[in-house]
Input
Amino acid sequence: VAGGLADAAEANPTIQTFVFAALFPVNLLIILLSGGILYTGTSASVAAAVFERKSHWINIPRTFSVAWIGNFLGALIFALLIEYCDMNENLTADLAVKVAEKKI
Output
């Protein structure tokens, strides 16, 4: 959605940032309602369980590793699907590069 705002962003540079910020909770809700588990939630729950002595400390690296590998594989599959469906073209690709350059 925000990738299609390139023309509007020339007149108002903050419009893309606003759209990203407005859609973030929507995307988070979609992930949670579909049964997805975030890495941060896994990190917090395992650490809390160890702190409360409901789990052993050895579970921390094991759980973090499984969660990280799962998130990495999910991101890789998502990227491959985006590329396969030709969804990363034109304005969307330009915006993706712009966001990546800002993060580096």
Residues 59-84 form the longest helix (26 residues). The helical segments are 6-11, 15-33, 39-51, 59-84, 90-103. Residues 37 and 81 are 20 Å apart (CA to CA).
